[in-house]
Amino acid sequence: MVTSKERIIQTIKGLKSDRIPVCPYGYKGWFEKADSEWQERLVNETDIMLITENTHDIPVFIGENYREIYEVNFKNNFRIENIKTPKKNLSRITKIEGDTEWTIEQLLKNEEDVNCLLSIPFEPFLDLNIDEYKYFEKIVGDNGIVLNRISDAASIPYDMMLPQNYYISLISSERLIYRFTERAALSVYSYLEKLIDKGINKFVIAGSERLGGGLTNPRYFDDLVYRYDKDLVSLIHNVDGIAQIHMHGKVKNYLEKIIDMGFDCIEPVEQPPGGDLFLGEAKNITNGRISILGNMDDLQFLNFATEREIVIRTLQSILEAGINGRYILGGTSSSLFTRQIAQAFLIVSKIAKIYGCYPIDTEEIKKEIKKWNVQSM
């Protein structure tokens, strides 16, 4: 009998499997917001995919030195981060309210601050704590997989600046942002090497959306995403690992480059208006060269849809993308837990276990869609 873990890995790598996986997708906070009953049901009744993140942009960029020059303090509902650089101190302030947090003072306010950050000498990590990864692997077992999230080189400068400042600097001070990204690439690659040394080989790489979806000139995607992300993918594949790319928004014009970088899977592949790809079109373009995860909108569809709507959408998705494999039924990576979304995934899983088994019986699916449509009249 194929386990959920085996099913997901087989599908992501383009190997033959028993059926289409159903992957609710979320981070630690998403999973922990569910009570124990829902956690157990999601783990046991779907092919769950959980995401961990060992650390964030500042420690990754600085490296081993962060233990000496970086500190975090909490005051009321604010998180205050401070960095001692050779030139001056830098700080970032984040407001926290329940499950929501937002930055009210960014780390890098101007180009002088960027140069101060770049003055910090980089030292590779001597060790990393992967207890969270091990914890979730133990919870999931063979009922799913755990991926470790990594921000790519393009994402780190963006995440340290106000978005408008980043894009203005990209135009007005291109060489500085290129130098910043090159330095971030060194840090990210070293960080990934250490995680692999610790035994992790399944990753989701995020950040490419900062320079995709028509936000910038396409050459910036080539220079700041393609140039560096392909090296991360190669490093992961050297240990027979999984490299999944997380890219919201309009991805159609970037699919060929994403495939050329060697990624095994792309998510969440959103349809309009948030994205620019309907599922069948995405499947036709990729043509079995990369796996697709997602396309069911968490918040606009799964959170409000009726059982009939969920069943029909699941069956249609199987027809559009699941016939020849390399498709995973999933949402759009909102990482927001609601009981409605969780219940929707249980319905999707139930349908997939009946109609998503290989070889797919397309005629039977069409009959079932017709039956559900008739019931609504």
Break the fold down into its secondary structure elements and pairings:
Blueprint: H1 4-12, E1 22-23, E2 25-27, H2 28-33, H3 36-45, E3 48-52, H4 57-62, H5 66-69, E4 70-75, E5 78-84, E6 89-97, E7 100-105, H6 111-118, H7 131-140, E8 144-151, H8 155-160, H9 163-172, H10 174-197, E9 202-206, H11 218-237, E10 242-246, H12 255-261, E11 265-267, H13 279-286, E12 291-293, H14 298-302, H15 307-321, E13 327-330, H16 339-355, H17 362-375
Parallel strand pairs: 1-13, 2-3, 3-8, 8-9, 9-10, 10-11, 11-12, 12-13
Antiparallel strand pairs: 4-5, 5-6, 6-7
DSSP E strands, number: 13
Biggest beta-sheet profile: 9 strands, parallel
Order of helices and strands: HEEHHEHHEEEEHHEHHHEHEHEHEHHEHH
Low-confidence stretches: none
Number of helices: 17
Mean pLDDT: 95
Give the strand order, joined by hyphens, for the main sheet.
1-13-12-11-10-9-8-3-2
Distance between the termini: 40 Å
* CATH architectural designation: Alpha-Beta Barrel
Number of domains: 1
Q: What percentage of residues falls in helices of 4 or more residues?
A: 40-55%
Q: Class by helix and strand content? A: alpha/beta
Question: In CATH's first tier, which class applies?
Answer: Alpha Beta
Give me the Rg, rounded.
Answer: 21 Å
- Note the overall shape: globular
Q: What share of the residues does DSSP label as strand, in percent?
A: 15-25%
CATH level-3 fold name: TIM Barrel
